[in-house]
Amino acid sequence: MLKGKDWPVGRFEMAKDSGHFLSPRNHSLSPPIVSFFGGALVRHNLILKVSLHRPRSPPFFRLNDLSLRRPADEEAKKLQPKTGSQRFDTQLAHCIDAKAFYSSSGVPRQVSCDGCKPLKVLFVEPPKNFWFVMGEYLPPPLGILCLAAYLEAHHDDIEIQVVDCQAEGLDWSGLEQRIKSFKPDIVAPSSLSTGNAFLVARTVELAKRVDPAITTLAGGLHYSVLAQESLDAYPELDAVVRGEGEETLLELVRAVENDQPLSRVKGLSFRRDGKVVHTPNRPVITDLDTLPFPGYHFVRQHMKNYHFTMMAGKDKPYALIEASRGCDHTCAFCGQWRFWGPCRRKSPKRVADEFEHVYREFGSRFLWLVDDNLGLGQYMNRLCDELAERGITDDILWFLQARVDDIIASKDLLPKMRKAGVHWILAGVESHDPATLERYRKGIEPSMAKQAMDLLKQNNILAQTTAIIGERHESHETLEAFRRWIEDVSPDIAIFMVLTPFPGTELYQLAEEKGWIEDRNWADYDMVHVIMPTEHLTREQVQRELYLCYRSFYGSWSRRIQGLFSSNWVKRTYYRYMLRQGLMTMLRGLI
After folding, report:
1. How far is 487 from 564, CA to CA, in rounded Å?
2. How many CB atoms lie within 10 A of CB 300?
3. Model pTM?
4. How many separate domains does the chain show?
5. Which domain holds residue 209?
6. What is the dihedral of CA 304, 165, 187, 242, to 10 degrees?
7. Which of 64, 76, 150, 362 has the smallest count of CB within 10 Å of its CB?
8. Based on the domain organization, do 309 and 177 belong to the same domain?
């Protein structure tokens, strides 16, 4: 377990003259995979101590060099109003008993009273750069929109704002001004992936700098798995909601308002008496139909601007739909099945209702089903029927991920799916080697990849694959064979990624035990930067092999011409966009 200064957190560039944060490293971040977040309580005064170390670039600011302390008695007395009243209005407009600011356990307290203003919660999608492999896109922040909607639906007296820094064009200074203006009691940043972990840390540090009394929260898979380490490393982070966030966040807010012990809130990690406390895990929500629609109304002014240029162009407003949580498969490189548990699906009617809602209420036309493995079969058949009844299938296009074995088993359903608006399906084929697929516990055969891609193309559905290189046994020779295999599979689009040991996966545990991990900067955990060598290749050699995979597939002039002039307008849009992007130049720059 990593402790202290060896904690592999994201790092921030610091201006030498001012000590203020500049932009984060701009080469990472992840594709739009939905997950979020946690909740927390603790109010502190912040003492900032800056120290520099020498990683591999300019000096960086380390968040684990922050420390917190309780206000001294003299400081607490200064909070007392001159009128002699035991209560005072803080700048957050909440009534606090100064003598009882901290409970006997050391946890900050909030005492409600008549006339108090509503609790203010600020959800933040922080400034960041998107995964360059996917081109230019602006996705809505689905995770925090789900949480905001749930909190709104179950709490009668609360004020919620969602700040999407990408949609609003806010940098870190702009976000700081928004925090100052709103004066939130709680700040909860979105957390999509390990590659974004440092952005969460930077956001909560910024909130504490604006007002040390703000309660800061984090969550998602990364922070759930590393709750202990994160709270040890980041004193400005008050608590972590582990696992599914909706119910835990709601209970946390109620505990704050009613001065109840946080130890009663399941799925929470927080500090008490200088130690990190982990409450029992929270059971998952079994009936996902009970969840409200995501709170797209919180970002109504941006809904027409969300887009995915590479996939649908800028003129089709883009929304995300969550139809399920969890997965029944147990791939060694994936942590989603551990985080969410077995697959739980919303009913086809509920999912179709959500399609119609974003279509009619917000004008969304390109819909991305974010599920890792929704499954096809009878469920998909019913969903297509529900969408057809709503009369919107001719005016939408939607994207989903599916397994190659599901595509083959549901081949008779593909024409119906295409008619219902499915224009694009992504399938993880991963490797040409049966032994590698077995080590991944993927549960498929290499021959299934071509069969599935051919079926999609026959039904005018864009066929996309993702594949992984950098498995421990791979060499130059095996990767050359892999490139020949993917040429034979011949998807319309191929995305190549490096095997990345994300926290929360079995791969991460194995890599830690074996000492394979050579890069501990979370910002590089983006499936493009190489984290581990293989038995036969250095990290630098694996990085070059990734470039060669893209060059081999997209360097073919015949493939380019077929793509640029394809009768499938989605494929045509993709190839014309990628020709302008210079993807190969960016990938070569990583070597």
Report:
1. 18
2. 11
3. 0.79
4. 2
5. 4-278
6. 80
7. 76
8. no
